[in-house]
Amino acid sequence: MTEPLLSIHHISKTFPMARNFRDVVTRSPRQTLRALRDVSLTVRPGEVVGVVGESGCGKSTLGRCIAGLETPEHGDMLWQGAPISAGENRRTRARHIQMVFQDPYASLNPRMTLGQTLEEVLRVHGLAGDAARRRERVDELMLMVGLAPALKERLPHTISGGQRQRICIARALAAEPQLIVADEPVSALDASVQAQIINLLEDLRAKLNIALIFIAHDLNVVRHISDRVAVMYLGEIVETAAAEALFTRPLHPYTRGLLAAIPIPDPKRRTSVPSVEGEIPDPLSPPIGCGFSTRCSHVIHPCRVRHPDLHQTGEHGVRCLNPAATRPFADPGSVYPATGNQ
Amino acid sequence: MSAAHNTLAVEHLRVTFGKAPNAATAVDDVSFEIRQGEVFGLVGESGCGKSVTCRSLIQLFGGSRPSAMTGSISFEGRNLAALQPKDLVKVRGSEIAMIFQDPMTALNPTMKVGRQIEEGLRQHEKLSARQAREKAITLLKSVGVMAPERRLDSYPHAFSGGMRQRVLIAIALACRPKLLIADEPTTALDVTVQDQILKLILKLRAEIGMAVLLVTHDLGVVAQTCDRVAVMYAGRIVELATTEQLFAKPSHPYTRALLNALPAHGGRGGRLQPIGGSPPSLAAPPPGCRFHPRCSLAIPACELQQPPLAAIQEGHSAACIRIGEPA
Fold first, then answer.
1. Predicted confidence (pLDDT) per residue in B228-243, tens digit
2. Which residues of chain B make contact with A273, given a CB cutoff of 8 A?
3. CATH code of the region A6-226
4. Is the pLDDT of residue A183 over 90?
5. CATH architecture label of B6-233
6. Domain boundaries, chain A
7. Least CB-CB distance to B262: which of A219, A220, A257?
8. Structure pTM?
């Protein structure tokens, strides 16, 4: 096995909530939101790790911690074996870990031409030598993401959403990264354009061997692109496995519910009952036991009182106390046992 | 099926925004009908005119009114396009109700949820305060809000996104409308909540017997909920079919390309097949078929004329001149 590029051990992140007037008067303590609870993850060179979950599950916070936009309170993050925040590694991270955001409209400076945006990265990191060489490199980057270099004089508002996301990817590539954290990179785009961007990310991975953390809520997209997948719920990883194993033999009841909730583009396979009832509990006061116990159809008494650990069997980890709930399905080919043809 | 009467029939609807030379025709010669009790899907990418079509039906355009709107919108025998504003107010919210994409902004943040539900009931059905309150409790219960007696006195900020969408559905259904217009009702929601809301709409449709116009960009949602579908591209309907027909035999090249661009539900299936280019500007659409610059089957004749919707089989038509040819 190759040495991991990035390994995260048991990191946690909390955000203090603002106290309103009533809290101050009643002297109630400041509440904290536990955005990440004991998250561990490794990324190997050139690997695509998908992170899925619903809004508020902590997947974006995880991405931001990795990219250095947030600092976790506990736990270690190692970059090629050495602590990520120590000395020289800080600069390494600034260059080798790049981020692509969800909204390509908001993540480009509206007053900078596309060429200037890319050149700035080269200048800041001292890459590509003198000005002439930098201009050449900008052309190269634009071609790499499938844009005509002639567009570099344009301002962001004159190009389409798909083109903007391409520029955001080019900006990430400009720093010659080894890991790109892509936070919902395609969810703001139309289906036809979405496919272009996914193909581009796959090509770049194959060509440049860049590892990718792909954060998304669209499970079909994640399944398509990822080697391994982590499913998050209420700030923790509830299941992690190789992509194929996770999608064909999901073990955690939440993963199964999530998979069954995807609307299948096939009118012959309709379902009439929602896959999971209820909604995510208030993250300010999560359940004492398993986070999913309030919605789980397999809930047993210990689930409500004891917090489950991530139980690892080989590559497949699952955080669930009820062994019956995590038994693989009889038919490994079917992901939707309870919701098939009716 | 032909015996069922139409709740809504739209004919040759054309909606233009702005003045020449910058006029953009957002909806161009759109015709379709929705039968009683039917879920009719309107699917397409952003900017294809699906939301404008919805808003034209009840002439609710917010800040940007169209500069011209022609065609007829026949609802239960009346032409909505010709109604006076004061008559339209009586239709909106009582016979035709609408739910919006963003449940975060569609509710009034300064008004208790209960009052927002009661408002329509008191306006249209002339219920007393007590009757309206009781009805509101029943409604909230029917859309799956727990402890409705207490929740009536909460403000919208105390509700999650899914719960707000449920409240909006309760408001929409308060007067038992004959037609519910749902404009991307689940796009802002998480996938498990989307699943719950879609199934709730289907359940209530069966109970009330209303027709539903469901706007979405997600073909999965169409397959799971709609009876019939219209696919829109650049302001025009390019394919019209029952859901079964559309997925069994997608006929317009755009529909086929859209289906091919989706990552396979069954898993990794090699490379995705995106549609090259991007949708055209509505102010200066390409001549002829609007999809031809991105179409892999385009021939020179496609540039010459706009193809009309032509029947392929009973209930299924597509606007492509190459439809009759062997694939």
1. 999 999 999 999 999 9
2. 199
3. 3.40.50.300
4. yes
5. 3-Layer(aba) Sandwich (3.40)
6. 6-226, 251-342
7. A220
8. 0.86
